[in-house]
Every structure is written in structure tokens, then in C-alpha cells.
């Protein structure tokens, strides 16, 4: 082994050690745990014993309507949350990148600050704002003739989407804004000279050129949406009538492990959720690769014919 190879191995070794301890071993343990279940002998009066059940926990999870309904909740959540997050983050980034924007650093910091608040603290703040007896927001809505309860079964999904948007909109705006700043300004100047307006430049040049950043944000958002847990858990603790303790697949696994003490079922539900996340991530990546590549400069007229070379006599 050469000195360069040894140096690379030494530098990569800490990463692989941490990756193995923090990722590979927990995943392997979850797979192993999902193959077993706890059973009581002696009509419930004896001790518990660990029994190999194979795919029994997976079949139990898939056969539970509560677990399946959790994925329907995630579908509705993603359908509302992801378009709003991408469109809102892009709109804010384009506004900050425009020539009319003023005090860019102030607005970047102001929009990013909610992301600095831990998720559980943000959920607690919004639960306070959702409580009719305490919230000035609900009181203002009612005084305006709008009687909407966020802590109800019909208002739970909009309430969770609102919390998530408040937390992550500014973060993704910063990613989009950084990508916009990396665009070659000569491309935008050429489009301006060709007569393209601000809307045409934004939709036809800027957004296509930061497509990789949009795909990355969409991919991470899909994975994060499938792991929805903190916000609905806090809302459930504040009002169990708004949503159940197994409202999402993550909450189903948490309830199975720490309420029913069925760690095998919780591990199986977690593995199934991970498989769905992997499949959706693959689908998003493939769709992004099939999208057409943007041109760096719009063509406003026909291409000139190449000049013929004249051979000197």
C-alpha cells in the first residue's frame, strides 16, 4: 500500500467507524429485533419468552389498519407541505436575488431564525397559539368571523403543515438563495439584453439552472416528511381529540415500543417505513435525472450559417 493510500485510509477511518456504530449496527439490530416477539406462558401468569416469528411482525403491521392509515396521512401531508415549501422557498429566494431587494442580510436572518428554534419548542409555541382559551390568533380569527379549530380532527393536518413550514421555509430559502448566487451573471445580463423580462428570467433561466438544488431539497423533504413525529406528538399530548397516538407510522412505532412494549412490532414498522422512504428517494432521483437539461442562454433567433473557409491562392 502506497503512502497516499494509507493517508486516505487514515482520514476515512473515523467516518466509517462512526457510520458503522451510528447507522449500520442500529439498522442490523432493528432487522434482528423485528424477527422476534415476546410471548407470555401459563395463560399470562408465567414469565415472558422471546419467540422467533419471522415475518410475523411485518404481517401484523401491514394488517393493522391504523398503520396503513398513517401512510394516508403522510400522503396528505406531503401533498400540502412539499409544494408549499418548494414554491415558498423559491419565491423568497428569487425575491432576495432580484435587483429590487433591499436589506438582504436582514431578511435572510429573519427568515432563517425560526429554523434555529428546536422542533419541540416550536411545536409547543404553536400549540399555545392553537389553544382557543389562550391564543390571541384564534381570538382574532373568531372576532373576524372565522371560527376554525386547529386542535380538531379536521384542523390537525393544516396545523402540522403550518408548524413545519414555519420551521423549514427559511432554511430551504437559504439553500436556494446560495444556489442563485452561484449563477453566472453574464447569462442573466445576456437574457436582459435579448429582451427577457424579470418573470422570464426567473422561470426560464434561474430556476432551471438551480434544478439540482431544488431536487436535493425535494429529496430531503420527502425523507423528512416520512419521519414526521415531533409536531403531531406534541399536538396529541395537548389534545388527544385532534389526532391519535398512532397518527403517523413513526408514532405507531413509538406507541408499539413504549406503550405496548412490543419492540418487535415497532422494529418491523420502522423497517417498513425505511423501505418506503428508500423507494420514494429512488423515485425522486430517477424523475430528476429524466428531466430535460436547461440551456444556459436562450436562443432568440436562428443560428447563423457557418462561414466557409477560403483557401488562400
Outline of the structure:
With 313 residues, this protein is mainly α. Helix content is 69%, strand content 3%. Helix 3 (65-97) packs parallel to helix 7, helix 3 (65-97) runs antiparallel to helix 10 and helix 12 (249-258) packs antiparallel against helix 13 (263-290).
Taken in chain order, the helices and strands follow as: HEEHHHHHHHHHHHH
Q: SS-based structural class?
A: mainly alpha
Proportion in helices: 55-70%
Q: How much is the radius of gyration in Å?
A: 26 Å
Overall shape: it is globular
Distance between the termini: 62 Å
Strand order across the biggest sheet? 1-2
Question: Averaged pLDDT, please?
Answer: 85
The number of helical elements comes to: 13
Largest sheet: 2 strands, antiparallel
Unreliably modeled segments: 296-304
Please give the number of β-strands.
Answer: 2
As a percent range, the share of strand residues is under 5%
Description of the molecule:
The protein has helices at residues 3-33, 56-63, 65-97, 104-116, 119-130, 136-143, 156-181, 185-193, 198-209, 211-226, 230-238, 249-258, 263-290; strands at residues 36-40, 48-52. The chain has 313 residues and is mostly helical. Strands 1-2 form a two-stranded antiparallel sheet. Strand 1 (36-40) and strand 2 form a beta hairpin.
Highlighted features:
313 residues; mainly alpha; 13 helices; 2 strands; 69% helix; 3% strand
Amino acid at each position: 500500500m502506497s503512502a497516499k493510500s494509507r493517508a486516505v485510509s487514515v482520514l476515512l477511518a473515523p467516518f466509517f467507524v462512526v457510520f458503522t456504530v451510528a447507522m449500520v449496527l442500529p439498522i442490523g439490530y432493528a432487522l434482528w429485533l423485528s424477527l422476534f416477539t415476546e410471548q407470555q406462558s401459563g395463560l399470562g401468569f408465567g414469565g415472558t419468552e422471546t419467540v422467533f416469528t419471522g415475518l410475523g411482525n411485518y404481517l401484523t403491521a401491514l394488517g393493522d389498519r391504523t398503520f396503513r392509515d398513517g401512510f394516508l396521512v403522510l400522503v396528505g401531508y406531503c401533498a400540502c407541505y412539499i409544494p408549499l415549501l418548494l414554491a415558498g422557498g423559491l419565491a423568497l429566494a428569487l425575491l432576495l436575488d432580484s435587483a429590487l431587494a433591499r436589506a438582504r442580510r436582514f431578511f435572510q436572518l429573519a427568515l432563517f431564525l425560526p429554523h434555529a428554534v428546536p422542533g419541540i419548542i416550536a411545536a409547543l409555541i404553536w400549540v399555545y397559539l392553537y389553544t382557543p382559551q389562550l391564543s390571541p390568533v384564534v381570538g382574532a380569527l373568531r372576532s373576524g368571523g372565522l371560527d376554525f379549530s386547529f386542535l380538531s380532527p379536521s384542523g390537525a393536518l393544516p396545523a402540522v403543515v403550518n408548524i413545519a413550514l414555519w420551521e423549514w421555509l427559511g432554511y430551504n430559502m437559504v439553500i436556494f438563495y446560495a444556489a442563485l448566487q452561484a449563477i453566472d451573471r453574464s447569462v442573466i445580463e445576456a437574457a436582459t439584453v435579448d429582451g427577457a423580462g424579470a418573470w422570464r428570467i426567473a422561470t426560464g433561466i434561474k430556476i432551471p439552472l438551480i434544478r439540482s438544488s431544488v431536487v436535493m431539497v425535494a429529496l430531503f423533504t420527502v425523507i423528512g416528511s416520512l419521519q414526521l413525529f415531533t409536531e403531531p406528538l406534541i399536538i396529541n399530548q395537548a389534545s388527544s381529540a385532534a389526532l391519535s397516538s398512532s397518527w403517523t407510522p413513526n408514532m405507531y412505532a413509538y406507541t408499539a415500543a413504549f406503550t405496548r412494549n412490543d419492540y418487535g412490532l415497532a422494529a418491523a414498522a420502522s423497517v417498513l417505513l425505511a423501505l418506503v422512504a428508500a423507494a420514494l428517494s429512488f423515485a425522486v432521483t430517477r424523475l430528476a435525472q429524466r428531466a430535460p437539461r436547461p440551456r444556459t442562454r436562450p436562443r432568440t433567433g436562428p443560428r447563423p450559417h457557418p462561414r466557409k473557409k477560403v483557401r488562400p491562392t
